[in-house]
Design brief:
The complex is a heterodimer of chains A (256) and B (255).
Chain A (H helix, E strand, L loop, with lengths): L2 E11 L5 E12 L4 E5 L6 H8 L7 E6 L2 E2 L7 E4 L11 H6 L9 H14 L15 H14 L4 E5 L7 H18 L2 E5 L3 H7 L2 E5 L6 E6 L8 H4 L4 H12 L2 H5 L1
Parallel strand pairs in A: 3-8, 3-9, 6-7, 7-8
Antiparallel strand pairs in A: 1-2, 1-4, 4-5, 9-10
Helix pairs in contact in A: 3-4, 4-5, 6-8
Chain B lengths: L3 H25 L10 H14 L2 H32 L1 H16 L6 H8 L4 H24 L3 H9 L4 H38 L5 H10 L3 H29 L9
The chains are: A alpha/beta (256), B mainly alpha (255).
Chain lengths: 256, 255
Amino acid sequence: MALEFRSVTKEFHTRTGGQLTAVRDISFKVDEGEFVSVVGPSGCGKSTLLSMTAGLYQPTRGEVLVSNEPVNGPNTHVGFMLQKDLLLPWRSIVQNIEFGLESRGVGRAERRQRAMTELRHCHLDGFEGHFPYQLSGGMRQRAALARTLAIDPEIILLDEPFSALDAQTKLVLQNSFAQTIAESNKTTLLITHDLAEAVLMSDRIIVLSERPGTIVAEIAVDLAHRDQPLKRRLMPEVSDYAAQLFKHLKLEEKAA
Amino acid sequence: MRTNRTVMMASLTLLALVLLAWQFLPTALDVPRYIIPTLSDCLSELHRMWRSEGLLGHLMSTALYTVLGFVIGSALGAVLGYLLGMSEFWERVLSPYILALQIAPKVAFAPLFIMWFGYNSMPKLLVTVLIVFFPVLVNVLQAMRTVDRDLVNLARAYNLSRLGIFFKVEMPSTLPNLMAGLRIASTLAVIGVTVGEMVGGNTGLGFLISYGGGQANAAMVFDAIVLLTVIGFLLYSALVRIEARVLHYIPKAQH
């Protein structure tokens, strides 16, 4: 078991002194090497789940376990990526990829070697000396993935990493991410509001309700080619899955 | 877009016109030379100052204290800015006083400093340090407040220590603002030194201004002002060059 949420509830204190429940009583597991997506309406606490897994803050009640150990703070098992690439603009691409390794007692030569390996892995050969501003949005996200993979985490958390990209770049990048992640056999949790993306990339999809977020459905995506979303896109079953998600999110009622 | 060459030519032509007007207009309009000396008056006065007033010594003294005050003041401003930027508590405790001091006219402290330290170089150095200090402090503090929280969280997730986060994320993030603060400070440094020298002491271009003013020697005042401007301009240009080098990773705006 790579990742487990055990009746996790997170409350925040608002500035006005009130209380806001972001997620309530969330329980689910992600197996090793599995790719699970979390979808839900905006503001349902999707990103809260991610921050708790990364150890940036603790659940109010319940536990988050990574490799059967409760998460008490930032830890070496988890790597995360956001919609923003969060590359340091003053560092070259290869120095950015090394960033996560610097506080982990990895020697300089080994850091560079691991960074270069991930750089090739993410199809950025030849761009190691460039600075972030010289790269396109898609390439910057690739560099961010390389940085995430360089620390060799057990779990990768992706928080809408494709949502700032144009439609075509998005498709290409989804495919290249899926391939890279499948090759390295990483456990992955993807937070997204793009239903098609969830179907194309996941083994399983968790559907959250509006705030306070609770799990309303869990859908196993029983399709081939998880490592190639572009191939999955052509399968007729994809629209059935999307329709299921649609129903669970009660989008039709909202549109009416 | 006009070429750089055209811009340069227009700029130089304008300078030539102004110099010509300076040379010939005062005489044509019957303005006496103790009110507005002509360009040639100023040049010959410059020559006289060089020979018999020890201009070089005054010039070097002013340049030295400008640079010294700038370096000390901006170093103090930056250090305090970063310290306060790391502690929200102290920033909130101190910010009303910082604002008050920032608004207070720093040059007005000069007579006090003379009473406290006497007629030596200390007062002018202190005025300069004080005047340079605030723009740097305020710029750094502002930048520390607006460092991307997600970048800091990323660094935290990568197990960076508080100091590691500061040196690898916060400090580099604030560099553009620090450089902007330094540029403003460089222009203010000249003002600080000038006021310090005008109020007390017997060295520097500021002293020559009050000395020349007392003798109704307008040409001397003009010359000192021009030289002060040159010092400030050189310091500013040096900073612009350093900035271009340090902030090379920021794409240049396309015209």
